[in-house]
């Protein structure tokens, strides 16, 4: 088992990761850095190539600027690959990796999903209206990868099926047509996901989900799968008490290494596509905070109802703050909270001192 602490890139932490954050990481690279294009705001989009094998893997992170967990994991991966670890040496001898740590530097700086033209780059794979999309497609065409890893974050609302387990990591082998046929490229991606899921079950049993495979030919994963390249969507989700996603980062790192090991050692066909479908589909069963008996705090709430609260991520300075917002009110049966608050009939209503924002939100509610 890998000792993750040996490879964690300590210079980058938390949720706000922009172009400046990763400059010290680029400085430690043992391979050349290539500018593959410019963003809308004329910021360099950098990539690098590592390894000398004939199995080519392309991976990219922060296509959505506010999805930074996988960027941290990518730099952990680089530390691993540049180490003396024997598995790292095998991967580099069998594979050539091209890595784009931050495809959307403008969105990363502003902590937004979209780029500076307010376009979702993950919905621009066919139209190629944005400079970042064009730069990526040119890189793809020049590198001609055998595998693609599309690295993202997902919201805290996702559960692994209709359970009380968060979808801490989710995967998808995207469809390449509306019928969602299991094409050869899709089958390979499914088998790699099965390999990663088996590994993750030893770390987070029951907390791996399968992302929705609805087809959209303007999404990057669907487009690349249509082109015959096995493509995997990685989604970094919530681990209990880990809003900075440092534990999830570790799990994504381990997943990428497992996928690369499976590719490098020619073990893909050891896994079965049927096991892919045994991974529970992502559901939306979670609130960040579930408040029970809110009528004790504020009589505007109906007895028997609960309040589901979700956090809005807001960039203030260079720090992400989590601001509570009421998302839903009702019986909310079958829903869960990453935190559950039971209001009690007393002066402080049962709220802890660090829950003042939530208490204030409930007190101000006016139906």
Automatic annotation (TrEMBL):
Residues 3-263 form the Peptidase M14 domain. SUPFAM superfamilies: Zn-dependent exopeptidases. Belongs to the peptidase M14 family. The active site is at residue 235. It comes from the Bacteria. This is M14 family metallopeptidase. The lineage of its organism: Bacteria, Pseudomonadati, Bacteroidota, Flavobacteriia, Flavobacteriales. Transmembrane segments: none annotated. InterPro entries: Peptidase_M14.
């Amino acid at each position: 088992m890998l000792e993750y602490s040996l490879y964690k890139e300590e210079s980058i932490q938390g949720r706000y990761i922009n172009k400046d954050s990763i400059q010290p990481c680029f400085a430690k690279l043992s391979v050349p850095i290539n500018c593959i294009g410019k963003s809308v705001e004329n910021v360099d989009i950098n990539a690098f190539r590592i390894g000398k094998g004939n199995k080519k893997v392309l991976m990219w992170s922060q296509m959505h600027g506010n999805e930074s967990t996988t960027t941290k994991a990518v730099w952990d991966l680089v530390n691993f690959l540049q180490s003396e670890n024997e598995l790292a040496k095998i991967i580099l001898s069998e594979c050539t990796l091209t890595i784009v740590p931050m495809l959307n530097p403008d969105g990363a700086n502003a902590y937004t999903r979209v780029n500076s033209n307010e376009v979702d780059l993950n919905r621009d794979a066919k139209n190629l209206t944005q400079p970042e999309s064009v730069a990526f497609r040119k890189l793809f065409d020049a590198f001609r990868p055998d595998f693609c890893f599309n690295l993202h974050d997902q919201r805290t609302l996702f559960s692994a099926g209709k359970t009380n387990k968060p979808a801490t990591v989710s995967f998808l082998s995207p469809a390449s047509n509306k019928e969602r046929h299991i094409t050869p490229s899709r089958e390979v991606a499914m088998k790699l996901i099965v390999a990663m899921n088996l590994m993750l079950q030893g770390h987070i049993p029951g907390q791996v989900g399968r992302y929705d495979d609805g087809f959209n030919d303007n999404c990057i994963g669907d487009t690349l799968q249509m082109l015959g390249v096995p493509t995997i969507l990685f989604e970094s989700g919530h681990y209990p008490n880990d809003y900075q996603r440092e534990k999830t980062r570790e799990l994504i790192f381990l997943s990428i290494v497992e996928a690369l090991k499976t590719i490098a050692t020619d073990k893909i066909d050891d896994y079965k596509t049927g096991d892919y479908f045994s991974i529970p589909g992502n559901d939306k069963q979670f609130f960040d905070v579930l408040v029970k008996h809110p009528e004790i705090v504020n009589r505007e709430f109906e007895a028997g109802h609960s309040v589901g609260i979700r956090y809005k991520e807001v960039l203030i300075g260079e720090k992400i703050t989590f601001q509570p917002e009421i998302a839903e009110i009702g019986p909310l049966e079958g829903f869960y909270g990453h935190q559950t608050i039971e209001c009690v009939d007393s002066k402080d209503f049962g709220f802890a001192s660090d829950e003042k924002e939530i208490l204030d939100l409930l007190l101000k509610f006016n139906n």
